[in-house]
Amino acid sequence: MAENPPKAPHVQNEEQLVYKTGFQPLELGSSKKNSTEYGTGYDHNDMSRMGKAQEFKRNFRPLAALSFASVLQATWEFLLISNTEGLENGGLAGLLWTYVWTLVGFGLIIVSLSEMASMAPTSGGQYHWVSEFASERYQKFLSYMTGWMSVLAWQAGAASGSFLTGTIIQGLISVRNPDYSPQRWHGTLFVFAMIAVIYFFNVYAAGWMPRIQNVLLALHILCWVVVIVVLWAMAPRQPAKAVFTEFSTLAGWDNVGVALMIGQISAIYGSLSSDATAHMSEEVRDAGRNVPIAIAWGYFSNGILALVLIITLAFAMPSVQDALDDPTGFPFIYVFKQALPEAGVNGLTAIILIPVIFSNILFNASTARQTYAFARDKGLPFSKWICTVNKRRKLPVNAIGLSCIISGLLSLINIGSETAFNAIISLNVAALMWTYAVSISCVMWRKIYYPETLPVRRWSLGEYGIYINMMALLYVLFALFWSFWPTERPVTLDNFNWSVVLFVGVFIISLGMYVVKGQKEYKGPVVDVKRDH
Questions:
Q1: In angstroms, rounded to a whole number, what is the distance separating the alpha carbons of residues 52 and 208?
Q2: Could you check whether the bond before residue 62 is cis, i.e. omega within 30 degrees of 0?
Q3: Mean pLDDT, residues 67-73
């Protein structure tokens, strides 16, 4: 799929490169301006075509980009620690088979996004692709709404990752001290600690992160090997029939089929944010080729590890109900308890916690870049401040800080109402699915009606790309529909799936922002794009 022409093009007449845009007067600089820092000829051409400034250092080589994608996704880790809905609605076999079809369905989304990332490698991601590929009549509105949904989805996801880390630590304390009673405000304090770590690494250790990520990739795989070996060697064993063919409904749904549709949310959550590397495009060398490769390879390699992990976990879980009733709130800790003494449980959980912590760090980095990009195109309030790049560090420090503050503020909601907090972070799934659906729809429209206007892509789906896009869109709509369903019956205020209410509310607020401000100030990134046709 990756196409790598033998030689990078020279920019005509030592083509001058855009390196100041946004709220500053457009200026031009030589393409020879520190090429090690500003990328290859392909990168120069891409940024010039999109009319964007090269404000960041391109210090991500191919391995670093792949490491970023793999460590951030942390698919096997997040499926291990957040599988309650899948076990409640489907049991062991349900958790396994819903992940199998999610792996395939999300794979269609991932390759579709990868191709778009090759055509337009920008930190903006989906909202930029919508602007560039949509009809001129609708591009501004669709791009603006997609930008808002993307910002809110990534911010909610950043908060959920930090909170999940805090609750795992609380679970470890519960294992060590059975008398410990986890309090919501304890979890919020752990979130604050996680935020401090995130800010430090993303601002003060940013220059070292590409190298650190390569080490973390090895750790990500090594931790997987340790967990797999320990569970197969020391945990009790379920019969294969229970793992592959026995479905159960423990959340009140009478119909197994409906339960499976609802339970797939665990698999979807573990597969989300696989497009994160796209938002780092302006820091990756030869982004038009290396970013889509990192996205696709990161997703499918993580997917294989996750599939083996789920099978292993299912064989090692003696009782689904007992796992769900574990006082720590984490079924995987129950499984560890069946295989190991207390010290071993703590040690194995700590091993998992390390890649999860760094996944949160990288998630915030991607969140900040996406927020920065939308602000650069004047899509957010206080856009000028948000998109300011620290000249010494060449980092969007303001956007990084803002993302950390938002995570902290959202975690405060948990002190007053766990239901309200869970409702907000559940927006992550629906809002991201919306951005996938709109961007894939727009590139399909352009492929069908104006294929000659599509940019050159060095990672292509070929002649069958349109059919892959169609299947991806069908899967997105399918997953989006079921993501709004409540996970338990009877439905109460506490277990109601508030994401549908928040999704509609956010859509209405975004629409109001567009009417009041967006249609006057926001033009859409396509206005800066140079077309060959």
A1: 26
A2: no
A3: 95
Mean pLDDT (the chain, rounded) = 88
Topology (CATH level 3) of domain 60-522 = Amino acid/polyamine transporter I (1.20.1740)
Residues 6+ apart with CB under 8 A from 173: 180, 182
How confident is the model at residue 51, as a pLDDT? 87
- Helix 418-425 with 139-176: angle, nearest 10 deg: 130
pLDDT of residue 529: 77
Output the pTM of the full model. 0.90
What is the C-alpha to C-alpha distance for residues 348 and 231, in angstroms, rounded to an integer?
A: 10
Nearest 5 degrees, angle CA 53-CA 373-CA 190? Answer: 130
pLDDT of the residue at 36? 56
Question: Which run of H or E residues covers position 248?
Answer: strand 248-249
SS (H, E, C) 34-77: CHHHHCCHHHHHHHHHHCCCCCCCCCECHHHHHHHHHHHHCHHH
Whether pLDDT at 20 is above 80: no
Which letter does DSSP use for residue 395 in this model?
Answer: B
Phi and psi of 517, rounded to 5°? Answer: -125, -45
CA atoms within 13 Å, Cβ hemisphere of 285: 16
Residues 6+ apart with CB under 8 A from 340: 230, 234, 348
Domain map (residue ranges) of the chain = 60-522
